[in-house]
Design goal:
Order of helices and strands: HEHEEEEHHHHHEEHHEEHEH
Largest sheet: 5 strands, parallel
CATH superfamily of the largest domain: inorganic pyrophosphatase (n-terminal core)
Number of domains: 2
Shape: globular
Helix content: 25-40%
Number of helices: 11
Strand order of the largest sheet: 2-1-3-4-5
Length: 360
């Protein structure tokens, strides 16, 4: 399978604070350069976007276990907790939400972030404390993000990339590492229900089962167990359901007061958007999360007839075929109207070309 790998130049001020020295990645060399940087590192910071989803949690779990097996000192960090269904993964109990101000690392691995501004605010400062920044992602990213960038837009989930990386590095992938990899697959394929469920994803799942991963154990934690607070939050969120006039667009909203009154955490809303997307006739679902002031985090999930990335471009943002996440400013009603209009525009095929990369 052909892979799309980033080929970028270091900017004068890279995320690690180093100056440019030419190409960072070159075709198939990307994974090998990530592997070499990890071999040379002793202390490694692992992180992903804030309010992490199952792909970030599973990738973090697998990386922690694999790097420990190599004798490294991994530190798993995110300002927010993992979703409850993924908190059982091996190594997830080591997740920390704060770093000492002088914490220094030989390498920093950033997974599944898409944009540097989704992680920049909580990375160690000064940038030199981060060591070599390794940007590993299966989403197109905006602007230069790492010293070494490995982007595989064909991968269904981070687990596909990490499995290849671990095998290249000679890591014995056992059931402990495999649980994290498997978790990324079920997170980003919706339990092997989304169109992102590729042959490669299914083959990897089969390989992991042969290595000792028990699908029911992972699925039970993710899908069959949930805190009471999440159920109460779900009732609030579904009560906000709106369906557009055309029937192609549906939207739900999570307000700050809902979190406060149900005592739920933001990560507990993971997957709620799928109730809106599952409505007959809906091609695009959105979830609006209130962030304070006039700021809203927008999550888009496509049924396949309208690309999420196309809708994102119409409102001036970025995304990929089946999903997108970005911030918009305005009132709730204004943003819902913008999104509904964008879905109708994308349905008609009136979509602007992808924007050029923006430096961060």
């Amino acid at each position: 399978m052909d892979r799309t790998l980033a080929v970028e130049m270091r900017t004068p001020s890279s995320p690690s604070g180093r100056s440019g020295h030419g190409p960072v990645t070159s075709g198939g060399d990307a994974m090998r350069q990530v592997a070499e940087a990890l071999r040379q590192a002793r202390r490694v910071l692992i992180t992903g976007h804030a309010d992490p989803d199952g792909d970030v949690a599973g990738a973090g779990s697998a990386l922690v276990c694999a790097l420990r097996a190599l004798g490294k000192e991994p530190v798993l960090f995110n300002p927010d907790p993992f979703p409850a269904g993924y908190s059982h993964l091996p190594g997830a109990d080591a997740l920390v939400h704060r770093l000492p101000p002088d914490a220094a690392f030989d390498a920093t691995v950033i997974v599944d972030a898409a944009r540097l501004d989704r992680v920049e605010s909580f990375l160690p400062r000064p940038a030199s404390l981060r060591g070599t920044v390794l940007w590993v992602d299966h989403h197109a990213r905006s602007g230069p993000c790492g010293d070494i960038e490995w982007i595989d837009s064909d991968a269904a989930a981070m687990g596909e990339m990490l499995y290849a990386l671990f095998r290249h590095m000679g890591v014995t992938v056992d059931a402990q590492i495999g649980m994290g990899l498997y978790a990324t697959l079920i997170a980003d394929t919706g339990g092997f229900r989304y169109e992102s469920t590729t042959r490669a994803a299914l083959r990897l799942a089969a390989d992991l089962v042969e290595l000792g991963v028990k699908p029911w154990e992972v699925a039970q934690q993710v899908y069959e167990r949930q805190p009471l607070e999440r159920v109460r939050l779900l009732a609030r969120v579904l009560g906000t359901l709106r369906v557009g006039k055309s029937g192609r667009f549906a939207c739900v909203t999570m307000a700050l007061r809902d979190l406060a009154e149900t005592m739920a955490s933001p990560s507990m809303s993971d997957g709620m958007i799928n109730h809106a997307r599952g409505i007959d006739g809906v091609e695009m679902a959105a979830q609006l999360d209130e962030m304070g002031g006039d700021r809203w985090r927008v999550t888009l999930r496509s049924r396949g007839g309208v690309e999420a990335g196309a809708v994102a471009r119409i409102v001036g943002e970025r995304g990929h075929k089946y999903g997108a996440t970005f911030m918009l400013h305005g009132t709730e009603a204004e943003i819902v109207r913008r999104l509904e209009d964008a879905v109708d525009q994308a349905w008609r095929g009136d979509v602007p070309p992808p924007p050029a990369d923006r430096g961060m």
